[in-house]
Design goal:
The chain has about 210 residues and is α/β, with parallel strands linked by helices. About 15% of the residues lie in helices and about 30% in strands.
Length: about 210
């Protein structure tokens, strides 16, 4: 088995633990060593806290890591610390209960949770966090460090820029573009293109502020 650590100590780290354990039931691939986290952590974590980021930075053998942090910018800040460490590998972790077209183009470090469907001719960048029961339709393009919250639906020919978070239950209509560093609030329906650095909510989605 391959030794793996989970970066993060919150609720999604526990969800990620479950994803890996369920996948191991079908194919015993991952040996979870524990979590990389600051001292204040979720008390329900199943495995030990190994230490903070320095533990992983000082680890010299080959090891696999999964980043269980939901915020796109925090996920980038964390993973950038390890970019020069060739022994640390960020695999793509795709739930065996997700349906993903075999030709989907993934970057590295992507996480796809149970119930999600990723259709044909989809391109995905690095460190996607795709939560439960999302739909990514044909010809969609997703940038780096994107977070798709549960039950979000991207219909055909949708483009989502990097560092963007798509809230729970969001619907993005066919052919629409959502820019970089955008937050789309839960339940919104995106029927027009959204520019970079904004927050949009509602049905239909309307911009309520521009992010710094």
């Amino acid at each position: 088995m391959k030794n793996l650590v989970i970066i993060g100590g919150s609720g999604f780290a526990r969800e990620l633990t479950w994803l890996i354990e369920e996948n191991n039931k079908e194919c015993l691939e991952w040996n979870i060593l524990g979590y990389i986290s600051e001292p204040v952590v979720d008390t329900k974590l199943k495995y030990p806290i190994l230490g903070d980021d320095n533990w992983l930075l000082n680890y010299e053998q080959t090891i696999y890591a999964a980043c269980g942090v939901g915020n796109p910018y925090l996920r980038k800040k964390i993973t950038e610390k390890f970019k020069d460490k060739k022994n640390i590998i960020f695999p793509n972790l795709i739930s065996k209960c997700a349906t993903v077209n075999k030709d989907t183009k993934f970057g590295k470090g992507c996480i796809v949770c149970a119930g999600t469907v990723i259709n044909v001719d989809v391109e995905i960048g690095d460190f996607l966090l795709c939560n439960m029961s999302c739909v990514v339709s044909h010809d969609d393009i997703i940038g780096d460090y994107v977070t798709l919250d549960p039950n979000s639906n991207l219909l055909g020919f949708v483009t989502v820029g990097s560092y963007t978070e798509i809230g729970t239950g969001v619907q993005i209509l066919p052919g629409k573009s959502v820019g970089n560093s955008v937050v789309v609030g839960a339940g919104a329906v995106v029927n027009k293109n959204l520019p970079d650095n904004c927050t949009a909510v509602g049905v239909p989605a309307k911009i309520i502020k521009y992010n710094k």
